[in-house]
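Q: My labmate handed me this sequence with no annotations at all. I'd like to see what the chain might look like in three dimensions before we decide whether it's worth expressing. Could you predict it?
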Amino acid sequence: MSRNKLIYICGNCGYQTTKWLGRCPSCSQWNTFSEQREAELKKEKVAIRINPAPITKIEAGARPRFSSGFGELDRVLGGGIVNGSLVLLGGAPGIGKSTLILQVASLFSKGEQQVLYISGEESAAQIKMRASRLAALSDNLLVLPETEFDQIAAIIGSANYGLVVIDSIQTIYDPAIDSAPGSINQVREITKHLIKIAKKREIPIFLIGHVTKEGELAGPRVLEHLVDTVLQFEGDRNYAYRILRALKNRFGPTNEVGVFEMKNDGMEEVLNPSQLFLEERPAGVAGSIIVPVMEGSRPLLIEVQSLVSPAAFSVPQRLTTGVDHKRVNMLLAVLEKKAGIAFAHLDVHINITGGFKVEEPALDLGLVAAIVSSHHELALPAGLAVIGEIGLAGEVRAVSQIHSRLKELKKIGFTEVILPGGNLKGLDFDPALQLSGIKNIHQLIDYISEVGD
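A: Here is what I predict for the chain of 453 residues:
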């Protein structure tokens, strides 16, 4: 009887219990438990195949990397695709995951190695139609519409493929596992087998994964722990721009981003995103300011827009796009307490143009400048940029990588920068940039009042 004992597993974090629970005690998610039999989860004992060795005796050779054909993707991966790696690419429906990965497969197949594209969602004819539109046709790009894992594993082992793509991992199933495709057991066990195949045959494998309505990767959290790299494809479907981030990378940094533009013929790299984001900026309008933010090692110039207007209802609205609304509420509280600007009867709207999302606190000074500019109806100079973090006492704190930010501003043509006074130390004099260091928000408000007269 114990071999058929039922247990319950959380689909979000993998927590196990002997009875059903409405809320997982590990990850605090609701209605995530599913029923499984204990016998399905038991692992067979295996003989030891390799003995541990001192780390000083291990030869650490550099793993070869291959170019994906997209410099932006190579940047996010840490320099290219690592041989034998397992990469998980997630993103919202319609964001362009399959489009990007099909273009990568086509570019990769133009070399001497063959690429196997396994689709569990589309037929071969549908993939051919999309490949024709993207100009991604190649004799070395092989398409396999299959969902049964035994067949997939046999075909991967039948030839020396240079790259394997599985679209998507939630559609693949193993007949030996008594659960539906996309379930915890199916995704976990199939991923484990794919890891063995990738490491043993030295084949890089890309997995496309679905996301939940909250924007997180679907399936058990253990899936993200098993793979070598987790990439997130982000963007607003109302905009053409897409951001590729690395949430996990065993072979490189996780703070790099790649910028793409969705066009009729597929994804196109954006080599100068700062210029692209500023092309439609209005001139002489209050509530607009440019802030240089850092995404990994790359500085990006983004436009922060603010609209402060009389409240239409008894409760004032605080609406934000592309920035944390809690951070905006904190800055409004600082302005009320330290600068005496009342927002109790005012609606405040904040927008980061281009569908971009910014989380770093160095955006604070730009948010305050845009809010004050809109509140006083004073337009800021077109060649002005601001950067700085604001504390609860109203002080302006120094930010990191100031040299990279200033270099990007100078390249685009900005002439004046307001920055924290602490960042002025060690900066070389540059006649092309007028640097104004401030220590608190009062100095920023005084500056805005002066340039608006």
